[in-house]
Design brief:
The chain is of the alpha/beta class. The protein has one domain (5-153): Nucleotidyltransferase, domain 5 (2-Layer Sandwich). The chain is 47% helix and 21% strand. The protein is built from six helices and five strands. It has a five-stranded mixed beta sheet, with helices on both faces. The longest helix is centred in the N-terminal third of the chain and has 18 residues, at 40-57. The mean pLDDT is 92.
């Protein structure tokens, strides 16, 4: 049995979704908001939040969901670069998977939709049903980032 503690992350410059899996069990999930314009302080706050999560749960492996087409946003690029530097300083090497890679592995070949991926994750983790209902009811919700983080954690 796999005893690694895996941190799945769906990063963003405003919202970050995380999921912590230990021995195949979802032990923590969260969406965290980082409001305001992009600044060095905001970048530091996001990396410190992720670092605190790594320390709190004794994370041994990290999986990051990235978009199929990498954004040209300066903030997003700085975030990924800073997170890589942080992980390297802790002896960790994140694995990166695109949205398409994750949906194909979790949902099957040719399936690349947010809805299909969320449904697969909710079936696997019924405790996420409240977040699923929030996502369905609010067109501006960002709860999907939690589902992406859980799906990313299942890639290892």
């Amino acid at each position: 049995m796999n005893t690694d503690t895996i941190l799945g992350i769906d990063p963003g410059t405003r919202f970050v979704g995380i999921a912590v899996m230990r021995s195949g069990t979802l032990v923590h999930y969260q969406i965290r908001s980082f409001q305001g314009p992009w600044t060095h302080q905001k970048l530091k706050a996001i990396v410190l939040y992720l670092g605190a999560t790594i320390a709190r749960y004794g994370v041994t492996k990290i999986v990051v969901k990235v978009p199929d087409v990498f954004p040209t946003s300066r903030g997003y690029n700085q975030l990924i670069g800073s997170f890589n530097v942080f992980c390297s300083s802790k002896g960790l090497r994140p694995s990166y998977y695109t949205f398409s890679e994750i949906t194909e592995r979790q949902c099957g070949a040719g399936v690349h939709s947010r809805g299909a991926l969320i449904q697969v994750i909710v079936r696997r983790h019924p405790e996420l049903m409240p977040e699923y209902n929030k996502e369905k009811q609010n067109e501006n919700a960002h709860y999907y980032k939690v589902f992406y983080a859980v799906a990313a954690a299942h890639m290892l």
